Amino acid sequence: LAHRGEPEQAETLARTAVATAETKTDNVWWQAWTHEDLATVLERAGRIDEAREALERSLGIWERKGCLPCAERVREQIQSLGRAQV
What mean pLDDT, rounded, does the chain reach? Predict the structure, then answer.
């Protein structure tokens, strides 16, 4: 939806996914990925600070899980946020 120019609908679905992953499952993979998906939607909408917050939540989950490759990937995403818009 975000790629098709429907950011409001994309954000609604992404936030629903985050809430579902956090309240209906203990699967940390889903929890982290939904935050990353939300960050993608927010970044596409130009909401870089909010995207960074979502990625930082994902990073915290990956670090607690001990998934170092995933944590490093998200760190790189955080560092690159907004660069294309500068």
Answer: 94
